[in-house]
Amino acid sequence: MTDTLTLHHLEYSQSFRVLWMLEELGTPFDLKVYSRDAKTMAAPDDYKALSPLGTAPVVTEGGLALAESSAIMEYILDGIPDQTLRPAVGSPHRARYLFWWHAAQGSMMPLQLMATVTTISQKRLPFFMRPFVKLYVQGLNNLFIQPRLNRLLTLAEADLASAPWFGGETLTAADFLIAYNMIVGAERGVINETQHPRCIEWVERMKALPSFARATEKDGRASMALSY
Ligand SMILES: N[C@@H](CCC(=O)N[C@@H](CS)C(=O)NCC(=O)O)C(=O)O
Questions:
Q1: How far, CA to CA in Å, does 28 sit from each of 7, 76, 79, 220?
Q2: How much is the CA Rg of the chain, to the nearest whole Å?
Q3: Ligand 1 test: best mutation among 7, 11, 12, 13, most atoms within 8 Å of CB?
Q4: Ligand 1: residue whose CA is nearest its atom 18
Q5: Can you say whether the dihedral through the CA atoms of 30, 177, 108, 227 is positive or negative?
Q6: pLDDT tens digits, 180-213
Q7: How confident is the model over 39-88, as pLDDT tens digits?
């Protein structure tokens, strides 16, 4: 008998996208939901103990404990040979799929994380330091974060004009991976109807998937990321 995969889902975290993709695949899995520490909002100690990184998501299966969203999603897909969420090697949309699959984690997430960390740390500083740090954060945002994010979003708009999903003509794992970035970006106004209408329309289409409703019900939270 093979072991069932368990998704350890931390509330308001990137593990939502794994939960969502599992629901889309309809594959059996066990789910354990963890709450964040009410004071620090960090993962609780029993979550941190699951893997050496201490981050969410984590899946366990038998003796395996695997962290890192994209590694987990690839591992799940490897175990389901007839799934259709990865365009085959040599197929027309393979390159586009690979681009967005890697850009979500490799380019977009670091920029969004930088914006989040600088915003939160500004708010936690003693008030007399805030004006100086605000100037620094504005500079970082204007010179580095926003221009790079804008280039990615401009490309996303162009790609979504030529085919409906990030991986091309069909829904792929790239859509579930980048969904976290896009939905959180939309909630924070970085991605908006005026500048990024196709991204917003894609977000609405993703949220209309029955797998989103199922994942949301199991998650039981009002949104997928922490608000600050
Ligand atoms: N690149 C990692 C990032 C993981 C990560 O930073 N997860 C956050 C949740 S969104 C986390 O574990 N935060 C809780 C904590 O650090 O205590 C992945 O995709 O798995």
A1: 11, 11, 12, 19
A2: 18
A3: 13
A4: 68
A5: negative
A6: 999 999 999 999 999 999 999 999 999 999 999 9
A7: 999 999 999 999 999 999 999 999 999 999 999 999 999 999 999 999 99
Q: Is 181 in the pocket of ligand 1 (CB under 6 A)?
A: no
In the numeric block, which tokens belong to residue 35?
């709450």
Which residue's CA is the closest to the ligand 1 atom numbered 9? 13
Mean pLDDT of 158-177: 98
CA-CA distance, 178 to 207, in Å (whole number)? 13
Q: What is the mean pLDDT of residues 103-108?
A: 98
Q: How far apart are CA 18 and CA 167, in angstroms?
A: 17
Q: Give the residue among 25, 172, 156 at the shortest CA–CA distance from 94.
A: 172
With a 6 Å cutoff on the Cβ, whether 13 touches ligand 1 is yes
Domains by residue range for the chain, with CATH: 6-83 (3.40.30.10), 94-209 (1.20.1050.10)
Residue with tokens 């003509």: 169
Q: Output the pTM of the full model.
A: 0.96
Q: Is the CB of 167 under 6 A from ligand 1?
A: no
Structural contact between residues 191 and 200, judged by C-beta atoms closer than 8 angstroms: yes
Element containing residue 33 per DSSP (H, E): strand 30-34
Partners of residue 30 on adjacent β-strands: 6
pLDDT tens column, 119-128: 888 888 998 9
